[in-house]
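Exercise 7. Given the encoded structure of a 333-residue chain, write a plausible sequence.
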């Protein structure tokens, strides 16, 4: 999650409470599949719960994706969050323009981190090396692109509503784009509550007074990335412009080019595959969290796919644990 959301990070207090209970033991620096196999764990314990999340960023699958400074959010987010395995990520903020691809909360987090004034991060737990780099960043324009219309965006409205509150950044959305999305969404009947709230939040951004500052964040829709261009590193990205016809997103045949020095893709995650498990649509195959008829269970993003905030996954995991308890028969010893 983003370092400028310290309130959510206080979830660690729950872990501290659990860890202080008698019978709790943490064995760190152990990677399932590398240091120990699932089979070994199953032989040793009455039940095994896999909570390994979704850690691999989905690929755009377009030419130029492998250029230097074309980075997945799955690498960029742990880099600024001080994950030890990502601290050596090569990222260059020397160009004025950055592009973020994706229309979900991860894309918003990344775009906001690039667009805000880094002094807003000074009191957070952003990795010091990332903070130093962000303080020297030349980025002043961040463009976020979604493939479908604003009505299809996977943002949640609280994340959108905080954008106009950024003290040192102006946020732009084309007003016409939002009213067209509202019309399309309304043409099928009553607009679902979450979509309505999102579109209202986006309309508020579109019409909000701008501060006239040099840091800018713009949200664009109906744009599919076609190609990233550059001599060895990102210099430009080409988008196909789309429209919605009979409820389908289709290309208009027109393209748009943006000169930029950094592209971050935030188009979803999938599980890193481990031996001994079956995967389906990027997540571990399970029935209500149970893997086959075994005493092995899966929770969180590894179970559900990369959706939902901590609260959603917490309540879902509680249901899995109830199932685990009801299935536990004779303990091993
Ligand atoms: C960029 C971003 C921003 C987010 N912001 C918010 C937010 O503001 N608020 C909110 O509520 N939610 C937020 N979320 C969602 C939240 O992170 C998820 O709901 C939650 O982390 C899912 O929990 P999990 O336990 O399934 O996976 P994770 O929290 O990802 O935990 C998985 C753990 O397993 C470890 N692991 C992976 N593979 C192995 C292995 N083979 N062996 C041993 N360990 C392994 C990983 O290192 C990791 O520690 C955000 C997500 C992202 C990606």
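Solution.
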């Amino acid at each position: 999650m983003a370092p400028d959301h310290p309130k959510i990070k206080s979830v660690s207090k729950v872990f501290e409470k659990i860890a202080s209970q008698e019978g709790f033991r943490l064995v760190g620096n152990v990677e399932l599949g590398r240091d120990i196999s699932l089979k070994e764990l199953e032989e040793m314990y009455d039940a095994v719960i896999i909570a390994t999340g979704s850690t691999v960023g989905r690929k755009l699958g377009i030419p130029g994706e492998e250029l230097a400074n074309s980075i997945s959010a799955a690498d960029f987010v742990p880099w600024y969050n001080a994950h030890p395995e990502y601290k050596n990520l090569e990222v260059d903020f020397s160009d004025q323009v950055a592009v973020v691809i994706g229309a979900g909360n991860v894309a918003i987090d990344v775009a906001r981190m690039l667009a805000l004034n880094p002094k807003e991060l000074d009191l957070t737990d952003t990795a010091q090396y990332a903070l130093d780099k962000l303080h020297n960043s030349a980025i002043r324009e961040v463009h976020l692109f979604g493939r479908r219309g604003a009505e299809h965006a996977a943002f949640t409205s609280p994340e959108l509503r905080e954008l106009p509150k950024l003290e040192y950044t102006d946020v732009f959305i084309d007003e016409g784009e939002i009213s067209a999305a509202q019309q399309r969404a309304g043409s099928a009947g009553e607009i679902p509550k979450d979509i309505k709230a999102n579109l209202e939040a986006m309309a508020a951004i579109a019409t909000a007074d701008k501060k006239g500052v040099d840091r800018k964040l713009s949200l664009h829709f109906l744009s599919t990335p076609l190609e990233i261009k550059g001599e060895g590193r990102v210099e430009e990205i080409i988008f196909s412009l789309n429209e919605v016809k009979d409820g389908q997103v289709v290309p208009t045949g027109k393209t748009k080019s943006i000169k930029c020095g950094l592209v971050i893709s935030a188009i979803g995650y999938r599980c890193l595959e481990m031996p001994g498990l079956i995967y389906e649509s990027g997540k571990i195959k399970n029935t209500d969290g149970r893997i086959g008829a075994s005493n092995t269970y899966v929770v969180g993003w590894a179970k559900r796919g990369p959706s939902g905030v901590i609260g959603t996954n917490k309540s879902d995991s509680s249901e899995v644990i109830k199932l685990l308890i009801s299935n536990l028969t004779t303990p091993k010893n």
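Remark. The two ends are 40 Å apart (CA to CA). Students should compare their own answers with the one above.
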